[in-house]
Amino acid sequence: MSSIVVIGAGMAGLTAARALAVRHQVLVIDKGRGVGGRMATRRLSTAGEPGNRAGGVGPSADHGAQFLTTHTAEFAATVAEWQAQGLVAAWFHGLVGPHGVGAADGHVRYRGVPTMNAIARHLARGLSVQVGTRVSAVRPRGRGWVVETDRGVHEAQALVMTPPVPQSLDLLTAGGTALAPDDAAALGAVRYDPCLALMVPLAGPSGLPAPGAVDPAAGPIEWMADNQIKGVAGEPVVTIHADAAFTLAAWDAPVEDVARPLLAAAALAGEPILTRAQLHRWRYARPVVLHPEACLVAAGLPPLVFAGDAFGRPAVEGAALSGAAAAAALT
Ligand SMILES: Cc1cc2nc3c(=O)[nH]c(=O)nc-3n(C[C@H](O)[C@H](O)[C@H](O)COP(=O)(O)OP(=O)(O)OC[C@H]3O[C@@H](n4cnc5c(N)ncnc54)[C@H](O)[C@@H]3O)c2cc1C
């Protein structure tokens, strides 16, 4: 048995950890309150509703990945298993347009049951996962690694890093660790688009067409979904993802200033309850310049593998395949 630390409990980190845990002692560390990373679901408080100042637990909204698709036989087999276990269900077939589901493209869009985050929580079962723990630096020691966190220090014989690449590079820099020039150049080329994600409960039905998703042809909205129609929430809550141009322009704006133009463009039937609106700023939402391989094994250092949705192919599928490739590289 050797010890491996996996940084990040998103799809890539959890997939790598599950494969590695068959033969190794594995610890997964994530700074988030729970597992899942960008497969994220938030519970909206009811505070702010008339006559409910203290607030309670309100409905949920998927605010990161909205669905998953399969383009490879490997991931299709995994998703078929999840479907048999009741972890995912077909949400719709084909592409979403301004009026809901439009053209067929031969692909099923699967949703998590009941939420996207539930898939990650299932994958984390049985693993040793430390959430709420931020890694601050990593540095080589002997043939292995020292992983510094805000809750203590871990030693590992190998390291898998799955945060968005710029964040992984920051951890190496903080540890005074230099990559080989080729690796530094390859990883330095990776780029992501940011995304503002607005979640708003409504006083009545959203009016979005079944199955509850719309992709307007023009900005500022890239995507919106009704979490009630999708099966995530018991009452109407919309998730609105701003497009990249609006996101960049409004990045630092307060929630009201983001909500106003997005809700005007959304033209929902139900009245938005603005006092309960929440905003999540995804700085590294989706990779737009990817590393061509499914993972990168660092040269000239103790065992270190970079993985995530910026390696090989994007999205939840890419993250899962990259996590599997990282595990194979260390086995
Ligand atoms: C708004 C939005 C919409 C999307 N829509 C879709 C979609 O519909 N379909 C689809 O397939 N994909 C979608 N995606 C992309 C999908 O969510 C990602 O491709 C996938 O979830 C990435 O998984 P990952 O494991 O590579 O990274 P992540 O999920 O980002 O996991 C990395 C983890 O590392 C942790 N971490 C980072 N730094 C540290 C640190 N210093 N210490 C400890 N932990 C750390 C983070 O907390 C995070 O949990 C969407 C993404 C966003 C943001």
Backbone CA Rg: 20 Å
Q: How far is the first residue's CA from the last residue's CA? A: 11 Å
Q: Summarize model confidence as the mean pLDDT.
A: 95
Strand neighbour order, sheet with most strands: 9-2-1-13-20-19
Which kinds of small molecule does this entry bind, naming each only once? Answer: flavin-adenine dinucleotide
State the shape. globular
CATH topology of the largest domain: Polyamine Oxidase, Chain A, domain 2
What does this structure look like?
By secondary structure, the chain is of the alpha+beta class. Strand 10 (135-141) and strand 11 form a beta hairpin. The protein has two domains: 1-33 and 131-190 and 290-331, FAD/NAD(P)-binding domain; 58-110 and 191-288, Polyamine Oxidase, Chain A, domain 2, CATH 3.90.660. The model has no long low-confidence stretch (mean pLDDT 95). The chain contains nine helices and 20 strands. The protein starts with a strand and ends with a helix. The chain is globular and about 60 Å long. Helix 1 runs parallel beside helix 9 (315-330). The chain has helices at 11-20, 73-84, 116-124, 165-174, 181-188, 227-230, 244-250, 255-266, 315-330, and strands at 3-7, 25-29, 41-45, 57-62, 88-93, 96-97, 100-101, 108-112, 128-130, 135-141, 144-149, 152-156, 158-161, 191-201, 213-214, 221-226, 237-242, 278-289, 296-297, 304-306. A six-stranded mixed sheet has the order 9-2-1-13-20-19, covered by helices on one side. The chain has a five-stranded antiparallel sheet with strand order 15-16-17-14-18. A three-stranded antiparallel sheet has the order 10-11-12. The chain is 27% helix and 31% strand. The structure holds flavin-adenine dinucleotide. The site of flavin-adenine dinucleotide has 38 residues, from helix 1, helix 4, strand 14, strand 18 and helix 9.
